[in-house]
Structure to design on (332 residues):
């Protein structure tokens, strides 16, 4: 069990991360790729990814066992992380004492490879190998699915925003899922080891993660800026075939989108809406909204998450781009 202790000042400093974190998604997915559970959610992706990965996968697996401790320095909490390269630049500048501390702790639970000892010493070549492996893994295993990862996390953020608006910060904390329980002033989190995290006025970053599984995660060192990484809901078909990046986009599935109702749903989904809210806004029936949502979702223009017994729809990056075109050139 992880217990996170809040003060009143901490409650005022809770925030949800602005999007997916490249390094948390890489590290979580490397661990998830090595596991056998969660087959319903990750089975199709594992089957797709494993034969496509080059030698860097084994190198990363040596740092990220499927269970137990993983080094904190692999998911830095400071610096620019708005792009993969920016995140890697932060990681590559990790101070030697942090490398030595984290990798010594890793060595207490697994037998590290020889290059890990070089990494612990701050060897520049070992750091370069690590950076190359992380970059290659992202391209091979995650980049083809990244728009879907981003859309799912955007949808989860919209759900959290609604919780915050409806019930405040404590409602946000209470609604994070069955593995997380808010018992003021303590947030109790299902966790593989007993750990306590005292925020002491530093606040808490809530980081939704697509590949976090099966329980939430946090940093082992409580002195680092506090973060709680939690699993999000996945659409049942998220790991379906990915588009060939060499193919033209064309109009394809956009043809059926012509019409005021679907355009209205897409506009409402820009900031997030439930089926009930869309039906009320557009003055149509719930089944009609559901039918139009299926077309929008098949076209890749919205994503849907289900929480607390309701469906919540959010425009994807492609959907937002289409709405931006509408804004420049008139109504859809």
């Amino acid at each position: 069990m992880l217990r996170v202790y809040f003060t009143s000042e901490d409650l005022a400093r809770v925030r949800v991360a602005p999007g997916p974190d490249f390094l948390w998604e890489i590290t979580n997915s490397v661990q998830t790729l090595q596991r056998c559970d969660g087959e319903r959610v990750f089975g199709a992706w594992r089957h797709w990814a494993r034969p496509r990965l080059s030698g860097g996968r084994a190198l990363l697996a040596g740092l990220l066992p499927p269970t137990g401790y993983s080094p904190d320095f692999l998911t830095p909490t400071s610096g620019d992380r708005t792009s993969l390269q920016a995140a890697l630049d932060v990681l590559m500048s990790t101070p030697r004492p942090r490398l030595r501390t984290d990798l010594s702790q890793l060595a207490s639970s697994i037998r590290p490879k020889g290059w890990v000892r070089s990494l612990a010493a701050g060897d520049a070549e070992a750091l370069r190998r690590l950076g190359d492996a992380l970059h290659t893994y992202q391209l091979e295993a995650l980049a083809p699915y990244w728009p879907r990862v981003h859309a799912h996390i955007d949808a989860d953020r919209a759900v959290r925003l609604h919780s915050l608006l409806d019930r405040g910060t404590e409602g946000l904390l209470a609604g994070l899922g069955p593995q997380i329980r808010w018992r003021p002033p303590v947030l109790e989190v299902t966790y593989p080891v007993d750990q306590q995290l005292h925020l002491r006025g530093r606040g808490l970053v809530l980081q939704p993660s697509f590949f976090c599984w099966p329980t939430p995660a946090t940093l082992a060192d409580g002195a680092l800026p506090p973060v709680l990484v939690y699993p999000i809901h996945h659409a049942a078909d998220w790991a379906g075939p990915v588009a060939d990046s060499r193919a033209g986009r064309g109009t394809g599935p956009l043809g059926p989108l012509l019409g005021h109702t679907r355009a209205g749903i897409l506009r409402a989904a820009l900031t997030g809406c439930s089926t009930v809210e869309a039906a009320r806004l557009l003055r149509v029936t719930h089944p009609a909204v559901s039918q139009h949502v299926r077309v929008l979702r098949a076209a890749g223009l919205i994503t849907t998450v289900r929480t607390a017994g309701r469906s919540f729809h959010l425009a994807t990056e492609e959907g937002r781009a289409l709405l931006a075109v509408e804004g420049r050139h008139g109504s859809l």
The two ends are 51 Å apart (CA to CA). Confidence is low (pLDDT under 50) at residues 244-255. The chain is about 45% helix and 15% strand.
